[in-house]
Design brief:
Blueprint (H helix, E strand, L loop, with lengths): L14 H5 L1 H11 L2 E4 L3 E4 L2 H8 L5 E2 L16 H9 L5 H23 L3 E3 H18 L6 H17 L2 H25 L6 H6 L2 E2 L2 E2 L2 H32 L1 H9 L4 H11 L5 E6 L3 E3 L2 E3 L4 E5 H4 L34 H18 E6 L6 E2 L7 E3 L1 E6 L1
Parallel strand pairs: 2-10
Antiparallel strand pairs: 1-2, 3-7, 4-14, 5-6, 7-10, 8-9, 11-14, 12-13
Bound molecules: protoporphyrin IX containing FE.
Protoporphyrin IX containing FE binds next to helix 10 and helix 14.
Amino acid sequence: MPSSPVSDHWDPHSEAVQRDQRHAYDRMREQCPVAHSAAQGWTVFRHTDIQHILHAPETFSNVVSRHLSVPNGMDPPQHAAFRQLIEPYFGMARVRAFEPECRRIARQLLAPIAESDTVEIMDAFARPFAARVQCAFLGWPEETAPALATWTLANQAATLQQDREVLSQLAAEFEGLVQDALERRRRQDLSGQDTTSELMRETVEGRPLDDAEIASILRNWTVGEIGTISTSVGILLHALSEHGHLQEQLRNQPDRIADAIEEVLRWHGPLVDNRRISLKPVTLDEQQLDAGERITINWVAANRDPEVFTAPETLDIDRDQSANLLWGAGIHVCPGAPLAQMELRVVLEEFLHHTSNIALEPGEAPEMAHYPASGFSRLPVRLGRQ
Ligand code: HEM
């Protein structure tokens, strides 16, 4: 614990942050790059400090909660064993084989939308797409998708309220869903037919995974996928609506869609932050932190840091993306990135193919999502038909 009380430098739940998170985090990065708040302890905003944290797991631990979290909430050497186990699930061959199913889901959701003039993208496409794709990836029935989407929204709301009791209830609820899925497979001997069944046969350190570990892995994948993918879909379609030249370029050069995704999501990050805890006293940007301090790394600010990205507010799909922290870095770098990149590429390919124009709805402004979510809670757009 900190040896002396620290006065607060900012309030991550203030009205100014909720109104425009990106610019509020930009201001913090310039004015107070390592800031304290009662709600979260220390928040780090600069790219260079965040890189330092990501590459020093011996000083900055991921064991931030007493709940099992596989592998996000683990440190070396335990982390490596579980990480090795999950990585093959996101290999290129698997992702490629899953692409037609993602495209089928995108087309099915897009068909009724493309025939109506104005559409609220988050409810009509982004959230159901993310939830249905996740069900398909896990081998769960499509009817589970609305429950997964509702669960994710409730989880986000409880995180915002920092309501530990509701968060625990939601974790138990998810565990119930997983337990059903595992028991159904045990009864019907669905061995070998889907990702969930495959996971049930995995071993770690010479023993089978237990049910709590399987539930934690599936929860991390689900939280990782549904929130970030639906948010990213909103951010990407908003960017195309506002930047007509980019939309035009991608219509003419669909092979640049993958580069555009990395750049748009650098410019407007879909994931706001992740947590660490200091294991020893450290100095970050002249701030002295004790051992045992809570630390939040703010991805949105890091990816808009002018020390690293020239003219960070400018969308430039030719930009060198090697410093982009969209997927993190170091031992916890996102294992799901190849899957996420494929899903988002498929969404843009399908939207661009089935419409002649994507524009913001003139009468209805988009509504920004509130922290801890990013992107948009409502995004009304007008689609031009082919
Ligand atoms: C646009 C979509 C996504 C973004 C922006 C994103 C971003 C990230 C970032 C920044 C981290 C590092 C967290 C840290 O250092 O604390 C991470 C970790 C992780 N992500 Fe993703 N992610 C996305 C999609 C996914 C998907 C689709 C999955 C799986 C289905 C996934 C599973 C995970 C897991 C399991 C980790 C923890 C890895 C570890 O601790 O070793 N993510 N993600």
